[in-house]
């Protein structure tokens, strides 16, 4: 961003603010910043008035959560937003006014043509065009494009048909608690009660335990859910491929952590083999091949939980379509799907000298 | 079958044998025969030596389960087999030798060109060519073809790409018990133990609770699982459409009952709309439309459990492919997916005067 001044901090360290510090993603961001020894000068934890005042430990120091407001962003280099779209809409421009770069984990700015939508392994180059706000993509999109970008590079990519298997933690702590409560109700042979899923603000709620809900986020006019449209639109933007056919069906499942995806793709290059696809996955950053039917090797939500990578298995050639392949893509939705990717964007800003 | 003699029973009633009477599907068959008041003269319950001797109530009578052996089928009109492929391979020909018609619920004979593979709403006409054995299709196939046949009739069908969301009861009582045990272990904060899923006879076992296992049945040489190949091959046979492109990814989930399927199809007729597809579903036998995003109406495994119909929702037109549509198809895998379809085949044999 032109005219932006780097705030003077010692030894190339940065003043960081986290908006939504007490949420599921905010907590993961804190853990990853600590684990990665991110060069922090000052760390400001921000939240809604409801959670303000809470104490949170960070690398041996006890920090107090403050209310997020326009003036919270004075002297902040990078503000990581993860507190819902309406908060980002209200406060991200304020943070930018104060000279911070915002990495926003909500859908508020993702499709704004002036906002880079970034998965660093895929399109870190887009960061240099930022105008103050950078968007972190939707969790289900991140893991899919991380796996498909190297395939697009190698063989071209013309089509994606994806069906998702998504964890409740993508809907926040309350949804995780709802699954846990329903699970206990089931064990105690009580009737299951539902108040949160599929969408807190929607009229009807259905139990998620021992069930599958084909609704994530609200419905749009065209009959697709907002989650499905995010996957469709964000994938094209991140892969910088407007001719790509993308369709999605998004389903919430009784899984605590990690999204899985059954992905059908068509590549442009003719006569590719499973082994060609496997080789590309094996040699790409942030993506791990776990694919050997002879040893029952494939990723699952439980095996991917708390890991940083995107795992790919069950790669098969379509039996009828010569350019078609099937993949099973799994990653921790709170780690690479949210918190890690946010921190990686901040790291990439650092590495590229943008901050 | 030429030369087959109807056994003389009173008032158009039939002598029925159930092989695998104590299993998950066998138990459902018994319930459905009772609920539907199937015209039974004599009912013989057969099983492995392990379960023989068990007492089972049927319409107020207590029946004793006997060991299934070659001579069990004397004077039997219809033998309903649901005790695993090896038992069917061994005993179904014996039952036929004794003059019984076999309805086999295993995969043993499904792809045999001399064996009709039947979903009565779809291809009851195939029954007349039987040579003693009739195969009941795989659970995940039945519900899909039941929903897609009327669409094929109306608009032609050229392609299916399906990702399944399958219940553990499809793997038998032991798998249901394993999910229940793991659920209790989770609630008690104990480590989950796995001995059955994904496949009892395979080397490795993974927890199914709070997980998704992209393996149902064993792997074949081509990297697809046997379950996926069943869906692919059986769909073409039942829909009598060898030019149909079919691909499948089959996934086991922590759901007790009902399989769900995210199905992408391409129809042959141009410019069809969601409303065209909905009308066809609405007016077809055995299939129920539950599709209204404005009221969050769609089927789920819990809502479909213990019901006889196949439920269809989330019908959307593909945003890029003019002939492409997405559907969400849900049905109880033990009812329409197994026991009900078996009984409906027997009813259809009756109605067509074949028995």
Folded structure, characterized:
The structure is a homodimer of 355-residue chains. The first copy, chain A, has 355 residues and is α/β, with parallel strands linked by helices. The first copy, chain A, folds into 2 domains: 10-136 and 338-351, NAD(P)-binding Rossmann-like Domain (Rossmann fold, 3-Layer(aba) Sandwich), CATH 3.40.50.720; 141-333, 2-Layer Sandwich (Dihydrodipicolinate Reductase, domain 2), CATH 3.30.360. The first copy, chain A, is built from 9 helices and 14 strands. The first copy, chain A, has helices at 24-35, 85-97, 120-123, 139-155, 173-187, 226-238, 274-282, 301-304, 335-351; strands at residues 14-19, 40-47, 55-58, 61-64, 66-67, 78-81, 101-104, 133-135, 157-165, 245-249, 259-267, 287-289, 310-317, 324-331. In chain A, the strands form 3 sheets. Chain A has a 6-stranded parallel beta sheet with strand order 5-2-1-6-7-8, with helices on both faces. Chain A has a 6-stranded mixed beta sheet with strand order 10-9-11-14-13-12. In chain A, β6, α2 and β7 form a beta-alpha-beta unit. The radius of gyration of chain A is 20 Å and the shape is globular. The termini of chain A are close together. In chain A, 56% of the residues are buried.
